[in-house]
Amino acid sequence: MLTQAAQTELSSLYATNEFAEQNKYAIFTVASKNDEPYTDASSKQELTGLKKRYDNIVSLSEVPSLTDGKGDFFIIADHSGKIQFTVFKDSKNYVGVYCEEDGSYGAYIDGSEIQFANGNDYIGKVVINNIYDRNGTKFWSKAMVFGWLGIEEFNPGP
């Protein structure tokens, strides 16, 4: 339910003037557990209410590990507000990953099958990012994200 809850929040925000103005920038944060945006050289943050949106997502998701504060997640979405990746870690050290590219869901054990901490700057946030680089290559691809998270079982093929 986490991906659906976040998609609901993104869809509501997408129709606003506030989102349209913010959407001019390469990277920005839509929701944040600590009310702090993700920042890097190409980000610019104008949206406010990040903590409120995060709390709305957690509440809508009805995921016990999130509502009790023992779990965590991060979400990467594109500029149309469509979620590309949801990465969720529960209180028992299991990590679930949703990938829009092929519609897959996977479950992994943190520390042995996946390195959730590799997403450290994104954890606790919903971030809009350029999914494609300037050459039209899909930067936020399944191969890139799974490699970044250290998912060893993933084989992107030939």
Largest sheet: 6 strands, mixed
Regions with pLDDT < 50 over 5+ consecutive residues? none
The overall strand count is 6
Sketch the topology as an H/E string, one letter per element: HHEHHEEEEEH
Rg from Cα: 15 Å
Helix-strand category: alpha+beta
Helical amount: 25-40%
Beta-strand percentage? 15-25%
Estimate the mean pLDDT confidence: 92
Overall geometric form? globular
State the end-to-end CA separation.
Answer: 34 Å
The strands making up the biggest β-sheet line up spatially as: 1-6-2-3-4-5
Discrete helix count:
5
Main traits of this protein?
single chain; alpha+beta; 158 residues; six-stranded mixed β-sheet; 5 helices; globular
Report on this model:
With 158 residues, the chain is of the alpha+beta class. Helix content is 27%, strand content 22%. It has a 6-stranded mixed sheet with strand order 1-6-2-3-4-5. Helix 1 crosses helix 3. The mean pLDDT is 92.
